[in-house]
C-alpha cells in the first residue's frame, strides 16, 4: 500500500472521521454549501451496521428477581480538543439520567422520563464454581468489576445462611480513587463484614495524582505468593473481566510468576493454562 494512502487511513482512523464529519468540515470551509443533491443512498451506505452491546450483569437474580443491574462507563475518545467520539450505547443509556445528555455529548430531542430499551438477557458462561468452598481469584478493571459484585453478593448470601465459602482475592483496577472507584462502599463492606476472613480486596489506580501508575497485574505481582498458592496448590478458579489488553497483561504476569516459582518452560505453562480453561478454572469476559 502506498505510504500516502497508509498515512491517509491512519489520519482518518485517529480523528474518527466519518461522512458526517467530512460534510461538517466542508460547511465550515464554505458556509453557503448545501447538500440537496447528495444521494440518500450514499448516506445510507456510509452507515456502519450497529451491533448489540453486551454488559455483564452486576446484580444477583436471587435477591433482585425482577431487576438487574449493569455497570456502564460513558466512553469519550478524543482525537483533539474539538474532535470527540462518544460511545453509542453508553451515551444513550446516560441520557436516561440527563434529559439532553452532558455537555458535548450526543443529545436527544425529548426527555426520556420513561425510556424503552430493546434488550435481551443471554445465558453467560461466566459462572461461579459449583462448590461454594472453591477458592476464587477475581481480576477486573473499570466496569469489569461488575460481575464480581454479583459474585460477592451470592457469596455473602451463602455465608449468611451458614454455608462455607472459599477464600477469595479481588484485584480491582481504576483510574482514580476519588473519581471512578466503582462499588467502593460495597466492596469495603463485604471485606469488613459479610465476607470478613474470606475476602481480601486489592486495588490499583493508574491516575492517582502524583503517584506512580499501578495496574492490576502489578498488584498480582505484589501478592504473588498468595496468588500462586491458590492457583497451583488449591486449584483456585480465576476470573478476568475487562479490556483485552488488561487480560493479556494479567496472563503474561501470571506466566512470569509461575515460571519463577516452579521453573517451568513456556510449553508447560501453556499446558497448565489450557487445562485450567478446559476445567472452567480460568474464565474471561473481555472486550476491545
Task: Give an account of the 3D structure.
This protein has 288 residues and is α/β, with parallel strands linked by helices. It is 39% helix and 14% strand. The protein has ten helices and seven strands. The strands form two sheets. It has a five-stranded parallel β-sheet, sandwiched between helices. Strands 1-2 form a two-stranded antiparallel ribbon. The radius of gyration is 23 Å and the shape is globular. The two termini are 26 Å apart.
What is the topological layout?
Blueprint: H1 3-14, H2 19-29, H3 40-46, E1 76-78, E2 84-86, H4 88-94, E3 136-141, H5 146-160, E4 168-174, H6 184-194, E5 199-205, H7 216-222, H8 224-233, E6 237-243, H9 244-262, H10 266-278, E7 282-287
Parallel strand pairs: 3-4, 3-6, 4-5, 6-7
Antiparallel strand pairs: 1-2
Helix pairs in contact: 5-6, 7-9
Amino acid at each position: 500500500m502506498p505510504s500516502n494512502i497508509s498515512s491517509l487511513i491512519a489520519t482518518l482512523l485517529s480523528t474518527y472521521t466519518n461522512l458526517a464529519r467530512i460534510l461538517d468540515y466542508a460547511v465550515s470551509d464554505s458556509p453557503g454549501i448545501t447538500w440537496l443533491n447528495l444521494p440518500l443512498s450514499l448516506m445510507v451506505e456510509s452507515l456502519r451496521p450497529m451491533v448489540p452491546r453486551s454488559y455483564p450483569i452486576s446484580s444477583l437474580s436471587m435477591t433482585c428477581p425482577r431487576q438487574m443491574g449493569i455497570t456502564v462507563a460513558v466512553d469519550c475518545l478524543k482525537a483533539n480538543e474539538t474532535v470527540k467520539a462518544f460511545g453509542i450505547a453508553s451515551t444513550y443509556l446516560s441520557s436516561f439520567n440527563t434529559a439532553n445528555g452532558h455537555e458535548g455529548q450526543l443529545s436527544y430531542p425529548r426527555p426520556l422520563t420513561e425510556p424503552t430499551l430493546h434488550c435481551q438477557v443471554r445465558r453467560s458462561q461466566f459462572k461461579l464454581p459449583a462448590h461454594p468452598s472453591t477458592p476464587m481469584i477475581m481480576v477486573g478493571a473499570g466496569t469489569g468489576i461488575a460481575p464480581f459484585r454479583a459474585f460477592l453478593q451470592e457469596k455473602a448470601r451463602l455465608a449468611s445462611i451458614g454455608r462455607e465459602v472459599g477464600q477469595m482475592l479481588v484485584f480491582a483496577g481504576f483510574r482514580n480513587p476519588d473519581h471512578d472507584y466503582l462499588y467502593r462502599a460495597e466492596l469495603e463492606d463485604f471485606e469488613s463484614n459479610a465476607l470478613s476472613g474470606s475476602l481480601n480486596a486489592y486495588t490499583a489506580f493508574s491516575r492517582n495524582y502524583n503517584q506512580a501508575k499501578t495496574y492490576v497485574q502489578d498488584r498480582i505481582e505484589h501478592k504473588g505468593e498468595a496468588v500462586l498458592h491458590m492457583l497451583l496448590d488449591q486449584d483456585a478458579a480465576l476470573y478476568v473481566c475487562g479490556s483485552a489488553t488488561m487480560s493479556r497483561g494479567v496472563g503474561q504476569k501470571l506466566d512470569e510468576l509461575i515460571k519463577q516459582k516452579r521453573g517451568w518452560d513456556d510449553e508447560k505453562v501453556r499446558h497448565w493454562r489450557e487445562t485450567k480453561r478446559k476445567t472452567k478454572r480460568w474464565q474471561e469476559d473481555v472486550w476491545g
